[in-house]
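Many introductory courses stop at the sequence. We go one step further.
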Amino acid sequence: MKKILHGRQREETERFVAFRSQWGYQAEFCTQGRGHEKGGVEGEQGWFRRNHWTPVPCAKNLAELNAYLLDCCRRDEQRLTGDRPQAVGAGMACEREHLLALPAEGFPLSEVCFPRVDAQGCVKVRTNWYSTPLRPGTQVRVEVWPAYVEVWHQGRCAARHERCYEHGRKVLELEHYLPALLYKPGALAGSTALQQWRAQGRWPESFDRFWAALMRRRGRQEGTREMVELLLLGRDHGYAKLQGAISSALEWGCSDAAAVRHLLTVERISTGPPPAALTVSDLGALLRYERPQPGTHEYDQLLLRLPTEVIQ
């Protein structure tokens, strides 16, 4: 709402008017400070909260939480409310017959803006900054969703971040800075992007041990550069595989980046399709070209002592 007017009147935003026009319903508002006017809705929310949100459910991500809530709604279809003879699901089936058909196209719920990438490789979205792998000065299309932010450029999604609801924060992805860190490896240790990876649990302890071993062997600059190169391999092969390869190298007492590359390659080959079995063909008339394998026994005569008269 843009503004609360007198009584039940409201000044609606253009986005909300477009949303309800798309789905074909009217908006009815309560009088300010009169919560009892929506008692039925408040009562159902309280029942759902007491039965499905107490204690607060745990979920790995928003998709898992939504799947849990959908399952709770399915189970509520068998519930009886008050003195009604019908269950919730049966009543919903009767009501569905009187509803309008859904439109063929959905309504885009994201907020769209067109910022430019700044000198730090970030775009400002509302009150926060989000990193991108794009060059500074590039104009991008940003879609702001309730749970995440997507940065689009030339028809592809260049970056995707979890949305931050704080103010003045920088949400950085270390992957976006790896090409630049190849030329300035000294900036990796104190970078904000690495600190955020550590806080998120995305930088395991084995990475630090292998990084330290590389610096002892190759020096601080070259060792860090080789670690950045391995992180680039993790971007292509997956960081779980990279972590497994580094852990295996550490177990064998190896601190060579080439060994980690080899382990990643072996993992890729071993997980691929098995090679086709070779079959022996009948050579037929070609057998007449068979020749015995050469031997070296004739050269043994060079080891024999020659007669004295031959030497003279």
